[in-house]
Design a protein that fits this description.
By secondary structure, this protein is of the alpha+beta class. The chain contains three helices and seven strands; from the N terminus they run αβαββββββα. It has a five-stranded mixed barrel with strand order 2-4-5-7-6. A hairpin with a 4-residue loop joins strand 4 and strand 5.
Length: 150
């Protein structure tokens, strides 16, 4: 075997090892990466029940209701197009309120209710998560009182 052939085999072997390492890394992170959807995108996507996603939009006015257990809150999120019912068990962020932009992480149940495992609320009056702002602008439902930038 010539020196040039050995070098090509070594390069090809290195490429195969590197490709395998990248594939294993991506496979390991695939469970940790959640795609972002607006309510309209989520309805259009028609995902399987149990698929974990991040959902962002505005908490619809008059939709927040506390369950009898005292720790579960149900509310709806809208982007001006579709409305998604959300159930969250736990302590909500202090800044959570109706009409505010939020992002929830969770999955749709078999009954169509979005079961949230995490709720993120904006941290001041002028901030809107970029993903939520983009989704609201896309729906023509943008309500930012400032200069129009998120």
């Amino acid at each position: 075997m010539k020196r040039k052939q050995r070098r090509m085999i070594l390069v090809a072997g290195g490429f195969v090892c590197l490709t395998g390492a990248v594939a294993l890394g991506l496979l390991a992170f695939s469970d940790k990466v959640d795609s972002f959807y607006s309510p309209s995108d989520l309805v259009a996507a028609d995902l399987e029940a149990g698929t974990r996603v991040r959902l962002g939009g505005l908490v619809e006015d008059g939709s927040v209701a506390q369950a009898e257990d005292g720790v579960t809150t149900q509310f709806t999120i809208t982007d001006g197009g579709e409305v998604i019912a959300v159930s969250y068990t736990g302590v909500l962020p202090d800044l959570f309120r109706e009409g505010q932009g939020i992002i929830v992480t969770g999955a749709h149940g078999e009954d169509g209710m979005f079961i949230a495992s995490e709720v993120l609320a904006k941290h001041d009056e002028n901030y809107m998560p970029k993903e939520v702002a983009d989704a609201l602008k896309e729906q023509g439902f943008w309500q930012h009182a400032g200069d129009g930038s998120p």
